[in-house]
User: Fold these one by one.
Assistant:
Number 1:
Amino acid sequence: MKLDFSKSVVLRGLASTFIKGFGAIFNYLLTFLIAMKFGAEGNGIFALFMSIVVICSSILYFGFDTFLVREFSTYDEGFKKKQNALYSFVFIRFFSNLLFLSILVSLTAFAFGKQLYGIISFSIFLNIFIDINAAVLRGIKQAEWYSYFTQMGKNLTLLILMLFFSFDTENTSIILWLYLLGLLINAILIFRIVRSKTGYPISRELMLEFNFKIRDVFLSTKDFWLSSTLVFSMLWVDFIVIDFFLGKTESGIYSVALKLANLVTFAFMAFNAFLAPKISEEFNQGNLRGLQKLISLNFIAVFPMLLIPFLLILLFPTTLLSFFGEEFVDGKMILILLATAQFINGILGPVSIILQMTGYQRVFQRVLTWVFFLKLIAIMLLVKEFGLFGVAVATFSSIVLWTVIGSYLVRRKLKIYSRYNNLI
C-alpha cells in the first residue's frame, strides 16, 4: 500500500512532467521561430498580446478554473449527478454568455476597423473555454490531459501552423490569427475529451433540478477568482509596464528571459497538475498525515528537476540567451534573477495549491492582494531608473515574498510543512 501510494505520486507526476517538458520545448521552438522571423520586437508584440489574453482570461474565469478542481476531485457515483449539473451550469450559463459578449465585442471591433481587438476577444473566450474544461480534467485526476492542454497543446498547435503556413515576415498579425485558429482546434478537441472521460451530457433539466443560481455559484468561486486573477496579473503585468515605459524590443528580451527562467519550475508545475485534487481529497478525509506524506514525496521527486535547470542557467546564461539571437544577451541578469525566484518558489513547495485546496483561499487572497500592490509600487519606482533589471527585481521580490508568507501560513494553519518533512 505504501509502495503503491509512492509510485502513484511519482509516476503520475513524471507523466505530467514529461508532457510539460515537451510543452516547454515547443514553447522555446516557437519563441525561436518568432525571433528568427520577427526579431525581439516580434516576440515583444506576441508577449504583449499574450499578457492581455492571460490577464483578461484570469479575470473572466471568475474562479471556476480552481473551484472546479476542488468540486470534481471527489469523482464517484454519489457525486456524479451533481457534478454533471454543475458542468451543465457552467456551459449553459457561463460559456454562452461569455460567447455572446465575445461576439459583440468582436463585431464592434471589426466594424471600426480594429481587427486586433476582435482577435483578442475571441482568443480570450477560447482560452477560457479550454482552461475551464482542463480544470474538470484535472479534478477527475486526468493530469496528463490537463498538462497537455494547459502546457503544451496551444503552443504546439501554433508552432505547427506557423511551420505549415508561409507568410509575409513583415506582417506580425499573422501570428495572432494563427494563434486564434490553434485555440479553436484545441477547444474542439478538449470538449470531445471531457465528454468522453466524464460522459456528461449538457442538460438544462439537470441544472434546473439542482437549482444552481448564478449568485450562489459566484459567491462560492469569488475567493478563487480573486486569487487566480492576482497571480496571473502579478506574472503578466510586467509586459504591459515594459511595453509602456521601455518598448517592444525590451518586452521581447524579457519574454525570452522569463521563458528560460520558467524551466526551473517546469517539473514543479507539472507535478502540481496531479497534486491539487489529491491534496483536496486527503484534506477532505481529514488525513493530514497522508497530506504531509504526499507533499514530501512530491518534494523528493521534484527537487532534482528544480536544481539541474537552475544550475544550468547560473552557469550558462549568456549561451542560453544567445541561442535566440545576440540582442537577447542583454537579458543575462534578468534571467538569473527570475530563475532564482522560481527556484525559491519551487523549494518552498506548492503553497498556493495547498491553501486553496484546504479552504484557506481567502487567507491566500489577502496575501496576494498586499504583495500585488507592493509589486506595482516597486515596479513603477524601479522601471524608470533601472529599466528591465528594475522590473526583474520587483518580480523577484514579489514571488519570494508571497511564497515565504504562504509557506508560513501552511505551517501555522494546517500544522504541516509545504516542503519535505518526515514521511513516517
Number 2:
Amino acid sequence: MDILKSLEERISKSLEKVSFFTTRVRTLSLLRVITFLLLITDLVILYNTGFQTIYLLAFTVNLIAFIVLIMLHKKNDYQLQINKQLVAINQEEINRLNLNLDGLYAGKEFENDDHPYSQDLDIFGDHSLFQLINRSPMKAARSLLASWMQSKSDAKEIVDRQNAVKELQQKQDWAQNLIAVARVIVNKKKSKKENEELETLFEWAKQPEKSGNIFALRIFGILLSLINLTLLGLMMFNDMPYQFFVLSFLVNTLFLGVTFKRCKELGEQLNQSHLIIRTYLKLIESIEAETFSSSQLVKLKGDLNDGQASAAISLLDKLAFRFSSRASMFYGLMAPIFMFDYHLLAQAVKWKNTERSNIRKWFEAVDEMNALISISGYSYLLPDDVFATFSEEEFKLKGTSIGHPLIDAKKRVTNDFDSSRKGE
C-alpha cells in the first residue's frame, strides 16, 4: 500500500467536504439573518395590529424556522470543523513520514534527565519519538503514552497492546475521526490546566452528597411552580390582580435562597470541567458505537458498561450546561416560576450518588484508547517497523536491521544484534 498516496487521498476527500460544508454554513447563516429580520417584522406588525391570529401564526412559524436553522447551522459547522481537523491530521502524517516534526507536541514536560534511556533515545523534546508517535490532543492520554514509553511492562500486557494496535491499524478512518472530534472540542478550551480540571472533576464526583431531603425538596419545588403558574394564568386570562402573582414570585425567590449557595458551588465546580466532560462524552459515544475483536479493546469498551457511560456522561454534560445557564437573565427570570434550582440540585445529587465510582474508570478507558490509537497511527504510517516477539529463553535479545526511526531511511545505518547468553 502506498501510504503517501493514501494520506493525500484522505486530504483530498476532506477538502471536498470542507468546501461543501463551508457553502452550507454560509447559506444557513444568511437564512438565519433573514429569518431573524422576519421575526422582528412580525413583532412590529403584531404590536400594531393588536395581535391578530394570522400574524401570530406567521411569528410562530418564523420562530420555529429560526430555531431549526440554528440547529442545522450548529450541526453543519461541527462537520466543517471535523473535516478541517482531518485535513490537518493527515498533513501532519505526511510531515511525520518525511520526519518533519516541527510544530508537533514534543512532550517536554515529561523529560527526565535521570531516566536510564529517555535522553539517549530522544524519547521527548524537539525531533523526538514522542512527536513521531503521539496523535492525541488530550493531556491525560499523552501522559499515559509517556508513562508507557518510560516504564517496563510484562510480556502479556505488551502482546495485548500489540494486538490492539494491529486492529486499530485497520481502523484508521475511525481512529482519525475520533482524534478529530477531540481536537475540535479541545481547541475551544481557553484553560491549559486540563489535568488539574480532571482531578477537580474526579474529586467533585467522589464526594458523596446527603440525599435525605432531596426528594421532598423537589416535590416542594413542583408545588411552588404549580401555584406560580396558576396565578400567572389567572392574571392573564381572568383579570386577577397582578399583585398576587408578584407576591408568589417573590416568595419563590426567597425559597430559592435556601439552595442558592449550594447550586453556586456545584455550578462553579462543573463549569471548570464542562468542555472536558463534552470531549469525553463524544469519544465515549464513538467507542461504544464501534465493534472490536482484540482482547484489550474489548475490555476497554466493556469498561464503559454497555452504554451506561455515555448515558451518564450525557446527563452530566447537560447538568453542567444548565448550571452555567444560571448566570443568564432568562434563567434569573424563569427560575422563581419553575424553581429550576431545586430540580438541578436534585439531579446533581442523584448523579453523584449513582455514578461517582465510575467516572474515573470511564475516562481512563478513553485515555488508554487514545494512547493505543497514537501507536496505531505510527504503525499505519511505518508498516515495515515490526512488532517485537518474546522468547522463552531467559537471556535472548535479537534484532536484524536495527536503526533509529528518527533518521531518514536513506541515510540510516542499520545493524544486526544477537545476544543469547548472560554477559554478552
